[in-house]
Amino acid sequence: MTRYWLVNESAPHYNLGLEKARRWLERQGHDVVYAPFSMEANQFDAVWFSVIFSWHLPRVFEHAALAHAWGKSVEIGGPATAVNSHAIEKATGIKPFMGVDYRFETEPGEYLATFTHRGCVRNCTWCIVPKTEGDVEEIPPSRLRPQLHLVHRAKNRR
Known about the structure:
Layout (H helix, E strand, L loop, with lengths): L2 E6 L7 H12 L3 E4 L11 E5 L6 H13 L3 E5 L7 H8 L24 E2 L10 H5 L3 E2 L2 H16 L2
Parallel strand pairs: 1-2, 1-3, 3-4
Antiparallel strand pairs: 5-6
């Protein structure tokens, strides 16, 4: 069993990818902590970072470089990596994951958000979606129905 420390560097913003990664790792029997980065992460085998917005990259630069220096297995992902991969690798020594991580894209569970499709055909120069997700791909309803039902239930609990 591997011990993972997961960090949402864009907290308090909801991080769907990291939520799916947490559930995926837990389902495989790993010990997972989902918390802000701290020195306690040094006691874990792997430290995963997700950054949604590019203005949160300085946090990743500092934290991931430290975890890497500790000799931990480090992964960096999230939307902000798409157009900042060279800067991330230069600052941390780690090549970030870019795009949709299909290891846990279809992980079942109760989430506050879901996707009905990925990608875009517009290719706006300022947008990262075509760079990270490619052309439009509809997610089959059979994969969505349970998640949409659970999301609807979660909204009605508030």
